[in-house]
Design a protein that fits this description.
By secondary structure, the chain is mainly beta. 0% of the residues lie in helices and 62% in strands.
Length: 124
Amino acid sequence: QVQVVESGGGLVQPGGSLRLSCAASGPIHIIDDMNWYRQTPGKQRELVARITRAGATSYAENVKGRFAISRDSAEYSNYLQMDNLKPEDTAVYFCYVRGWELVGPNRQRNFDVWGQGTLVTVSS
């Protein structure tokens, strides 16, 4: 079974930086895309950044120019570099991975898995 684990959250002052990591493991055949979402109490989870199998990236408007997503395809990992952090970036950040997993000889099936989340707090 595919598992996703995030790390790298913590407390940072406004204007500071953090780097989140996300690692997927298990019987992975192909990863279609890796995504970062974030959520604050009482609000819906929102998409922050995405990187596709082809390496294309996309960002929410409110993080463009400050966040950058990258990946290590060989390790099924991705990273979210967050610079110039603002108090409104405070949230639990979740990694969400979609792709295909091996379920037998020459057999695959779709998977989509969420990590457990990592808390980012931006405060002075």
